[in-house]
Design brief:
Helix content: 55-70%
Largest sheet: none
Structural class: mainly alpha
Mean pLDDT: 88
Number of helices: 5
Low-confidence stretches: none
Number of strands: 0
Shape: elongated
Radius of gyration: 19 Å
Order of helices and strands: HHHHH
Number of domains: 1
Length: 135
């Protein structure tokens, strides 16, 4: 498997598990199920059930602040997606499109701030309005 496809599987696994705990889950689940239906129809029903089971695990892990389980889920789905892409390289385009449509933060650019201070310098940063009243 080429490095670009391996990287896609890795980022898709992380994004998928992240989306399991968001409002975008229904759309993501539908897209992933359709992807499996087209690429591996004999596995589509099982994949849909596995997605739902993983979502339940992700929600429970999120509530319990269980980072180990979330990490294991990411690795599990990275592996599943890597195997899917290895068997069906054409699925990469569709997977990228699905991730672009559903990825958290896809609605707009993120704000990135960086500041370096030394000595007794002060730094005030805000993503929007900021009011400072020094006395």
């Amino acid at each position: 498997m080429d490095p670009e496809t391996a990287l896609l599987a890795q980022s898709a696994g992380v994004t998928l598990v992240t989306l399991m705990t968001t409002d975008a889950w229904n759309r993501t689940r539908e897209g992933m199920t359709q992807l499996w239906c087209r690429m591996q129809p004999h596995r589509a029903e099982a994949a849909a059930a596995e997605l739902e089971a993983a979502r339940e695990d992700a929600l429970a892990a999120g509530e319990a602040d269980d980072h180990e389980t979330l990490s294991a889920l990411r690795l599990e789905w990275q592996g599943r997606l890597r195997r899917l892409l290895a068997a069906h390289p054409g699925a990469a385009v569709e997977l990228r499109r699905l991730l672009d449509e559903t990825e958290p933060g896809a609605a707009g650019p993120a704000t990135v701030q960086r500041a370096d201070a030394s000595g007794e310098a002060r730094i005030y940063q805000a993503g929007r309005d900021q009011h400072i009243a020094e006395r």
